[in-house]
Amino acid sequence: MIALLVLVVAALLAVAYVSYGRFLSRAVQVDDGHPTPAHTINDGMDFVPAKSSLLIGQHFSAIAAAGPIVGPILAAMWFGWLPAVLWIVLGAIFIGGVHDFASLVASVRQRGASVGELVRQHMSRRSYVLFLSFVWVALVYVIAAFTDITANTFMVVSQGTAFGPGVAISSFLYILLAVALGQLLRKVHINLSWATLIFVPLVLFIIWWGPRAPDGLITWLSALSVKQWDIVILAYCFVASLVPMWALLQPRGYLGGWLLYLTMGTALLGALFGGQPVLYPAINLDGLRSAQNGLWLMPVLFITIACGACSGFHGIVSSGTTSKQLDRESDARPVGYGAMLLEALVAALAIATVMILAPGDPMLKNDPNLIYASGLAKYLGMVGVDYTLALSFALLAFATFVYDTLDVCTRLARYVLQELAGFQGMAGAALATTLTLALPLLILMVTKEKGYVAAWPIFGTSNQLMASLILLAVSVWLRKEGRKAWFTLVPMAFMLVMTLWSLGLQILPFLRHALPGDQGSLGATVVISGCVGLLLLVLTVFLLAEFYGILRRPR
Asked: How far apart are CA 413 and CA 405, in angstroms?
């Protein structure tokens, strides 16, 4: 049953890439005769042309991260695996893939401008400021959520063994390998194929060596708390967002892409040949509510699964870093649309690790990262890989996916704040990065550990709402270019309804507690979610009014 499901999902995604992907390319008139900004600007810092084989790995690992693992696993547990799989497939083909591809092409056509700059050029200065403010707030929340996820991964204990410290050591060595690869590619001009043959085995070696590091180092790292790991990870984000693209982001993304491919291969191996029975229910609903926690199927399903079906963060990546590296316009189809469909497959494979668990299985009480890693470890056990090594591999792969999002996300938030405030030069970049990371640090210090689980709904809502607004911005650009925009406006309307509905549901508890005479205590998560939700709602209402005025004007 699992093998059949995976084959059907893969076939649908492949057909969509060929057919709907070709339609999208025609709709925006992709033309390799147009030089991309990676060539016309090429400043050696942010605008650097990259081969499609290199760029798709970096882009894929940047957008994939923990989103297509955590969200789908949570949704499958709450509502059953069937609703989750249906939303992933349909959402990726008709909404998420369109969103990623269109935002990438629009940015490339505007000299690598961010979506915010696209709004400024085709709408108004006020729309531009409102949109960038929305994006910056959403990115701050992404950084906070994924930093907490990574910190908890470095604290994982399974079957009485502390796997987290070994994964942390392997993660640090993995970053050093990426730096070395960047230097060799840039300064020595080593052939990429030779570099791959050297560095991918080295990545596998550090996965093996990490848990076998000296006991003193393991013990010292085991003593660190989640909050201390939060600080260390945010410090890494500060450095990673300021160094040139070639020095860390490109090589780290390339190696991360290989880890992601190996992980997908492992998951495919287990799903297709593992022979594991489906034990978890396809539908886990009591009416239209989750039988597990009472959450409504609509709209919660559509904001719980963001990455894997549709994610506003992807549009910021596409128009922020990827568009500045695209070698040819035709590369937008495999990089933009193709990577989104691959991410959908990652999400479906993550759901398979829930499907093999019976209701009431103790594993279902663990965090999604451990459920996912444990599933992959079982698959690797089929070919004789030791459980400890297999679990370490899966956890490092998970942590690597999050790293890929964290440093890209911090860089993008830095871009946005620099655009808003007009900060110039390296000093301005450092100031923008500091201000960007200050808020996630504050959020992480005042919320409880594993706060990302409670905070996931507001993260997902802000992320999906950002996707709606990006689709709106791209629609305005298409209309200004004299092209049809129904293929962006229809998915935009659906996402907008779901996200505003969800936003209202999350703001209400905060408003009820805030009313005079209410004696209930306001937890930090409720306060932060309520305040962030209200801010996003206000920004969205003003932005929708701006967009409506623009769309009503004659072309």
From this structure: 12
